[in-house]
Amino acid sequence: MSVILSAEDLNVFYGSIHAVKGVSFDVNEGEIVTLIGANGAGKSTTLNTIAGLLRSKTGSVTFMGEELEKVSPHKIVSRGMALVPEGRRVFLQMTVQENLEMGAYIKKGAGVSEDMERIYEQFPRLKERRRQVSGTLSGGEQQMLAMGRALMSRPKLLMLDEPSMGLAPLLVEQIFEIIQSLNRAGSTILLVEQNARMALSIAHRGYVLETGRIVTTGPSGELLASPAIKKAYLGG
Predict the structure, then answer these.
(1) CA distance from start to end of the chain
(2) Residue 43: which of 222, 210, 228 has the closest Cα?
(3) Which helix (H) or strand (E) holds 29?
(4) pLDDT digit string (tens) for 154-188?
(5) Which of these, 94, 146, 152, 202, could form a disulfide with 104 (CB 3.0-4.6 Å)?
(6) Residue 6 neighbours by CB under 8 Å, 6+ apart
């Protein structure tokens, strides 16, 4: 398996607060890799740094063999990376279809209608509601829309920030089933998730963050079986 994303020695600050401390990790093509940890552990900050929304004081982010230090966020998207942000952030006044069209802004019309049909096949609920204003969708439907919008750019790496946040347990299961099906269809996925049990149940590998540092890493099965991880994150 080839490495699609490599983060080396990331150190990110919010003013005087050292939020991410020497974080390094890799994602291989075809994997689901998850970053887990408590609130405030630095998971979302790490993801936003990978996406170019924040900058690291040190180290590097390499994607598809290219160093991203001086690349702007919208150009990172055009290189094949897409972020589904925490809280979904769909355009509430736009219809479902208009939101999806916004996800294809880098493509200038080429193949957009075919991609739209592909998204509607993956998310039949969105097709049913394609003319509905997005602000009237349920939380689960908005999460599907945010994922569909990101997929419209045909990313080589899909990054998901807390996709289960605020969703009922049945919807959480549905969203994670969709993530698995996207991976089986060829998507490489970097998943940030507070629901450690669900994240590790679908991921190939995991990294555990505590107060901005990676403290444990390994195959998901090993992390799920670890007494320390169970005690700290799985309620067992």
Answers:
(1) 34
(2) 210
(3) none
(4) 899 999 999 888 888 888 888 899 899 989 988 99
(5) 152
(6) 25, 26, 27, 60, 61, 62, 63
Paired strand residues for 45 = none
**Joined tokens for residue 202:** 């679908």
DSSP of 115-142, one letter per residue? Answer: HHHHHHHH-HHHHHTTTSBGGGS-HHHH
Cβ neighbours, 10 Å, residue 16: 5
Using left for φ > 0, alpha for ψ between -120 and 50, and beta otherwise, residue 177 falls in: alpha
Is the confidence at residue 21, as pLDDT, over 70?
yes
Reading the block at residue 10, the tokens are 């990331």
Counting every residue written for the chain, the total comes to: 236
Token representation of residue 169 = 């347990």
- Please, are residues 10 and 40 in contact by the beta-carbon 8 Å criterion? no
Q: What is the pLDDT of residues 60-118, one digit of tens each?
A: 999 999 999 888 888 888 888 998 888 778 888 899 998 898 887 766 666 788 888 88
C-alpha to C-alpha distances, 217 to 17, 44, 125, 206, nearest whole angstrom: 25, 18, 36, 6
Name the more confident of 93 and 3: 3
pTM: predicted TM-score of the whole model, two decimal places: 0.90
